[in-house]
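USER:
Class, as today's exercise, take the chain set out below, and explain how the chain folds.
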Amino acid sequence: MGRRARAKADLDTELADLPPDLRWREWMGRVEAVIFAAPAPVTREALVRVVGRDCSIDLLIDDIREELRGRPYELVSVAGGWQHRTRKVFSEAIRTATGLGDQVRPLSQAESLILMCIAYYQPITRGELSQFFGKEVSRDLIAHLRGLGFIASGPRAPQPGAPYTYVTTKGFLSQFGFDTLRDLPDMEMLEDAGLLSKDKLLAGEFPDPVGSPDEYDIEDIAAGAIEGDE
């Protein structure tokens, strides 16, 4: 008979043999290592598996962030978890050295506005989006946003033909730096920026386009940085 494989020892999460300060440092190291190694934002549910039962993940995250002050990268809350990201101030240096980002085409104005509408009014059908625009929103455009991982099919709408609705994804939240949909800019901010009129949208009218089609992307919209023509 073959030898039985030895059971893998469970990770010691309590670390009861360590003094409190060293125990905390070990938990900090574990949490940061898990986040650093993960290709996607790490959820609270995943992090609690490597620390003690009475350990506060939020306080650990605060201490890690404090230690990262002045570093070229930071720990951000995004898409319902945490992720290491380089600070935006270094984006040009990274692009110059590596070429990363040069191949990425910014979203066109139409793509940005459609994505913004889906984010605010989800679940929403392609037909309803077409009503907002006053013209048909093409299947190709929707497919492009799906291909980028920003939207996905939602529940079928209670309408004739039961069309699929569309919703944003965690990829959308991660790409644009939102932790949850509650972090989307307030409607009033978008109105002040000349990008959106709540009254017109409620009346079924979509605002006229502003700027040139490829002039900006949804990150500018989210920041409220675009102003309409005077």
Observations:
- The longest helix spans residues 20-37.
- The first strand starts at residue 73 and ends at 78.
- The two ends are 85 Å apart (CA to CA).
